[in-house]
Amino acid sequence: METRFSYIDHLECSRCGKRYEAESLQNTSLCCERPLLVKYDLAALARAGMPADLAGREATMWRYHELLPVRSKTAIVSLGEGMTPLLAMPQLGPTGIAGQVNLLVKDEGLNPTGSFKARGMAAAVSRAIELGAKGLVAPTAGNAGAALAAYAARAGLPACVVLPQDTPRTYIEQSRKYGAEVKLVPGLISDAGQVAAQVARERGWFNLATLKEPYRAEGKKTMGLELAEQMSWRLPDVIIYPAGGGTGIVGMWKAFRELQELGWLQEKRLPRLVIVQAEGCAPLVRAFLAGKEEAEAWPSGQARTQAMGLRVPSAIGDRLILQAIRESGGTALTVGDAAMVQMAEYAARRGGILASLEAAATLAAYHELLARQEIGARSQTVLFFTGSGWEGR
Amino acid sequence: METRFSYIDHLECSRCGKRYEAESLQNTSLCCERPLLVKYDLAALARAGMPADLAGREATMWRYHELLPVRSKTAIVSLGEGMTPLLAMPQLGPTGIAGQVNLLVKDEGLNPTGSFKARGMAAAVSRAIELGAKGLVAPTAGNAGAALAAYAARAGLPACVVLPQDTPRTYIEQSRKYGAEVKLVPGLISDAGQVAAQVARERGWFNLATLKEPYRAEGKKTMGLELAEQMSWRLPDVIIYPAGGGTGIVGMWKAFRELQELGWLQEKRLPRLVIVQAEGCAPLVRAFLAGKEEAEAWPSGQARTQAMGLRVPSAIGDRLILQAIRESGGTALTVGDAAMVQMAEYAARRGGILASLEAAATLAAYHELLARQEIGARSQTVLFFTGSGWEGR
Prior knowledge:
Two copies of one chain form a homodimer.
Chain A: E1 8-13, E2 19-20, E3 36-40, H1 42-48, E4 86-88, E5 103-107, H2 117-130, E6 136-139, H3 143-155, E7 159-164, H4 169-177, E8 181-185, H5 189-203, E9 206-207, H6 216-230, E10 238-242, H7 247-262, E11 272-278, H8 283-289, H9 318-327, E12 331-335, H10 337-351, H11 357-371, E13 381-385
Parallel strand pairs in A: 5-13, 6-7, 6-9, 7-8, 10-11, 10-13, 11-12
Antiparallel strand pairs in A: 1-2, 1-3, 4-5
Helix pairs in contact in A: 2-3, 2-6, 3-4, 6-7, 10-11
């Protein structure tokens, strides 16, 4: 049977479903100015069946190349991203019942550049280069910029990273070390987004802002594919994920839907998706609790949290995120910065993992949902530790 | 056919070959006070053949459990160490011929805690606990202490890390965050070694100093096993490795010998092993160049380098290291701190990897050996980037 390296077929507007071709560089949909989603020829892949050699492929996210957008193997720009460990961590349950909870941690901090952002940038940079990009730019709260800078360096392409000027120094330095041009702007990531868009226009560079191009979400999708493979093609009861721009959740939900359609899962049941945001910046949680389909922007002046990855006042993927949570029967909640700091310490001392504040927020959310009895101790729960806290902020 | 989880058989004095049993906690050999090496029942494993499911096993170093010392799967203390990426990096060749060299980098910075030390500690902590250790202590220049602290935290065992007082703050903080007791002592790692030995005696804790117990080298051995598997059971022409205590080189050479004996390699030829040390502290290079079998200690007051992992004035495994280099037809050289700093920058800007100074030393050595024509541009060369430089020192 004929097999293809990638089964990418076309792009689709996430709002109205209008179809776009996938063989040129595109940002949001021209029709609705909303995220474009990648559609694969899943029917053909389903006919071909799960690749017989899958289990023996290299331990990176590219093992799922059929479900990734890069057409040619030689276009892949890789630093070894993906296939991060999934660790049983019952000891991270709350004192008293620690050791008795069914808890797993996916340690995304072991990706190149220290966070899950590597997955998205590996996919997006590879595909952008395959489609002819000459330079790359993105606004970022920190981690994504470091990832962009690293993959651009690996590929030999110029890159520009636009950050809020109060971003912790370690992130700024990290991007600079990879040789990227760094622009610091007053305000939040939304303000950085304006500057990045301008750089893209002026220089003819490709703008890789979250969900403003279709491929970062595809890279992040591999978190869901990997989770399924690591659990022998079953999925957990609950997934808790820290949502800033929310591409991780969108990507993962897309992964599960694709696996369902392919018939690769052992069970029909999908996990409940839980997102956690910071008390000081929670537009998606507010919208979820108010039963809304879209999220109003959090007032910029009031967006306050030390977890830079969660300081995102508005997410262009709001509809997709809210839809995924609701379809899954999940929920959304906030935690305070103090709880994040406390849980980061808890994870280090009991689990041996230095987690970022964003990652620690998932542990705080888990404890909270156990206390509210919205999750049972026996419910198999996976926390996504999205980034390493190693830089000691 | 009967198969065993581990084929560990006994221990052997690396100096005189005296046999010791492997089922109790032991440090150096009682006969010669030299490193004990682990011996496996390779004949039995060879008869069983390469495990049919090996390629599909989890992407950690524990995929090689037959060749690791832990008898029971449940005793494994893991944070997902091993199966780090092997990346083709021709662009890190010297300007002029960059892109035309046959160069690969094994990025050990993607291990838990940020360095290859995780492998050794995962093996040693797991085995120490299996054999009944109640507390763990080790002297360290930084990375090994962080690894010990993390694995002890994961296992719920108390740990004490002894560091030179001028160790960079990030390392000290890293060990503390995992909840380990940190002792700072004047002088070098050799001085820290005295204090660690004392702590072990007074408290009845197990001392995990490099090559003063048999199992850290076994964990590091997996670098060699992985390299072979990632290269389809062939090995490269040359391996360049930064040597402080030298356990990495000892472990890797042991891996290659075991694979030879098992008949798992496609070719008989083994790689040339090259070690690199710092100009300001190079006891092994001096001994190698002088044709000696043992290395005299570098005068403590003169041991100067910013690469803390290379500031090791004397290595208890000196004979084993020198023997491995000579048997392999390899060599030893020094590079200066300035070259390390420069090469760390080169690797970041051209390769997208933030390498530690120790790691960058291998790139400096590679450029030097190309210039000396001791390595050809076409010789397939693997650099071990032993640790991440992310902490921004």
